[in-house]
Amino acid sequence: MTPSATTSILLKKGLGNHSTECENASSIFTEKDLYLFRQGNHHRIYKKLGAHPQTIGYQSGYHFAVWAPNAQRISVVGSFNHWDASAHPLHRVQQSGIWETFIPNLSTGHSYKYAVRNAQGKEILKADPYANAGEYNQGHASILCPSLLEYSWHDSDWIAQRSKQKHYEQPLSIYEMHLGSWKRDAHNQPLSYRALATELVPYLQATGFTHVEFMPLAEYPLADSWGYQVTGFFAPTSRYGSPQDLQFLIDTLHQAHIGVILDWVPGHFPKDEFGLSRWDGTALYEHADPRQGEQPDWGTLLFNYGRHEVRNFLLSNALFWIDLFHVDGLRMDAVSSMLYLNFSKNDGEWLPNVYGGKENLEAIAFLRTTNDLIHHYYPGVITIAEESSSFDRISQPTEYNGLGFDFKWNMGWMHDTLSYCQQDPLARSHHHQQMTFGRIYQYAEHFIQVFSHDEVVYGKGSLLRKMGSWYASDKFSTLRALYGWMWGWPGKKTLFMGNEWAPWDEWNYQKALDWFLLQKPEHAGIQRLIADLNRLYRTHPAWYASDMVPQGFYWINPNDAACSVFSFIRQKAQEHKLWGTTAPSPSITHTGKTSSKTKSFPSVPSTPPLLFIANFTPVERSHYPCGVPFGGTWREILNTDAASYGGSNRGNKTVFACPEPCDQQPYRLDLYLPPLSTLIFEYEGKQIFRKTSKSLDS
User: Fold this and answer.
1) Predicted confidence (pLDDT) per residue in 626-648, tens digit
2) Structure-derived torsion over alpha carbons of residues 360, 364, 366, 368, reported in degrees to the nearest 10
């Protein structure tokens, strides 16, 4: 019988007459374990709490341990004891609030829960907060599984080189995906972790992404939440296979030199009775006062970051995914909701901090500690904040009074660029500064430019449909130009699955992506464009090595609103520091105007710079003058209007910069700009004259 079918029976039986008040002489917890746990500093507490295989003498079985300081009695019930609450009671471990027991002769695969007589004397069934596997669509029981330490990894080369990476100076192009709706099998079922290892790896290699980001994989009951309402923080969802299957998938990705980032949700949890909510009858993981403990928008509960054991739960959970699953980064969801006590709350619905402010001081301290611990234990592992408020220093180190994240999603840039591209092309000149304003704050944080799942759901429409034009061909052209602009803009990149071939419909988590669209040249062309952008991005240090410092970018002309044309240079800075730098380029006001200051020009760099120029109107422009810092030849290395991408195949090959001042630069190019296009030129330095060519094939 399942736990849901036997709940009333076993609760009527009670927890038996076994005394649970005595201390267990054979406890696995040392005094140091208990001290560190009470202080919130037991960073690997997941190795002690939960259910783990254990051998005592000649007997093999499972050791169970759970934190429930206010419970009156606790017992393990499961498929191995007919859900009998009197069969296997737990014992208190001193005054720690921890309960434990050892059950011999248990094998993997059994489902179990804790039968808890809570603080009010009510008998309830609870899933194991530290379980490594669980059910998601039946009784939501926990599941006994082999030790996750037993998996034999084959990614030692990857882990070794990861620790040496300077990720600010490396290419980072992330493919965000929801595992359940990327592809489906012949029975319309999501691919398993192991099937994904076969399907996903070659796809990412072909499209050139450096990393894949999985939307939350910790166990969750409601499919509609996409994984963002977690009930099993230490249990990979069983929707796609076992925990060992997920380890195999990540191992396979690493062997193919593809990094793995995992969405992590430390901000809230659902109210499901079997989960963390009032686990021992009291507000254990959450706050007792709903003004502190509830998130009204999502119908969830907020963690009590001021409680040491709760902070320990989350800290060890972050390390758990890196330690046992070798993930290369954590993208922390909804950080704004953690930082502010009044997030999505009206006056009277929240309590201020001890200083009368709206900042959640305990959450801020937790985030700083988490980031510092990750970077201490795992050099090269990155943390990313999804954060959209004006909170300062999100991605600066804690020693600089920052939160310690490596990167922050650039939500402002995303909103501005999409708003601009949604305008009618002939009206974009009136919205010109939406494309230039981002340069003002670009280096305030370490940004990732992102078009995520949030932009293609809930009636927002697909990226393709957002492009402002009545003509389908112009929509495709605009999106191609936007992708060229996105990849060229300083900062790392994240793109949600499916957007690499521009579906017409928005994302639906209940079905697979529209792979059939790749049979159509205009969609397949955008996929080829993304692959080429990734390939060039990864092979040109001028494009990625100085993403995080102002010296890596400067405007050529940000002010041509009449033509809706933008041009800028990307270059590898010869020397720079992450902090305390200033831009060498002309200052830009909030309107995008350049200052009248005299500009000094650098000598020819050893790493060839790149020129990006974008035309966001459906008007072709012949002999468009564009200033450049160096004379000689500039070779067009990518054109979003190329025929292979679905364009009209008009553009340039190699052009010569003549010694004539233009755009405050000492040299001038005469370029052909196709309608709705982004062009990329690499400086070659050869003093050879070539005429501008309209046809890319001429």
Assistant:
1) 999 999 999 999 999 999 999 99
2) 180
Q: Where are the alpha helices (DSSP H) in 140-274?
A: 156-162, 179-182, 193-207, 243-255
CA pair distance 527, 533, nearest whole angstrom: 10
Calculate the CA 531 to chain-centre distance.
Answer: 21
Place of tokens 């002999």: 623
What distance in Å separates the CA atoms of residue 639 and residue 696, rounded to the nearest whole number? 9
Beta bridge partners of 261: 213, 329
- Rounded Cα distance between 335 and 364, Å, is 10
Summarize pLDDT for 254-284 with one digit per residue, the tens: 999 999 999 999 999 999 999 999 999 999 9
Chain position carrying tokens 């963390």: 276
- For the chain, domains (ranges, CATH) are 3-145 (2.60.40.10), 168-208+242-258+305-328+342-541 (3.20.20.80), 549-683 (2.60.40.1180)
Mean pLDDT of 128-147: 96
Contact 506, 460 (CB under 8 A): yes
386 is catalytic: yes
- The whole-angstrom separation of Cα 463 and Cα 257 is 29
CA distances from residue 446 to 332, 352, 440, 493, 508 in whole angstroms, order as listed = 15, 30, 14, 12, 31
DSSP characters for 467-505? Answer: S--SSHHHHHHHHHHHHHHHHHSSSEEEEETTTTS--SS
Among residues 635, 622, 684, 687, the alpha carbon closest in space to that of 658 is found at: 687
Q: Give the whole-angstrom CA distance, residue 413 versus residue 439.
A: 9
Q: Which of 386, 406, 455, 500 is catalytic?
A: 386
CA distance 527 to 501: 5
* Residue pair 535/208 in contact by the 8 Å Cβ criterion: yes
Q: How many CA atoms, within 13 angstroms, populate the side-chain half-sphere of residue 327?
A: 25
Whether 620 is a known active-site residue: answer no
pLDDT digits (tens, 9 = 90+) for 676-693: 999 999 999 865 434 444
Take residue 182 and report the two structure tokens written for it: 């990327």
CA atoms of 543 and 545, how far apart (whole Å):
6
At residue 349, the 3 state secondary structure works out as coil
pLDDT at 17: 35
Model confidence over 287-340: pLDDT tens digits?
999 999 898 889 999 999 999 999 999 999 999 999 999 999 999 999 999 999
Task: Specify the pLDDT at position 685.
Answer: 85
Q: What is the C-alpha separation between 294 and 301, in angstroms, rounded?
A: 4
| CA dist., res. 685 & res. 629, Å (int) | 11
Marked catalytic residue, from 294, 333, 560, 663: 333
Residue 565, sorted as left (phi over 0), alpha (psi -120 to 50) or beta, turns out to be: beta
What is the spatial distance between Cα 216 and Cα 236, in angstroms, rounded to a whole number? 9
**Are 2 and 139 a contacting pair, CB within 8 Å?**
yes
Give the number of C-alpha atoms closer than 13 A to the C-alpha of residue 298, restricted to the C-beta side.
22
Helices (H), 331-392: 335-339, 361-377
Specify whether the CB–CB gap between 456 and 499 falls below 8 A: yes
Cβ(373)–Cβ(322) below 8 Å: no
Q: Please give the DSSP secondary-structure letter assigned to residue 132.
A: S
pLDDT at 135 over 60: yes
pTM of the model: 0.92
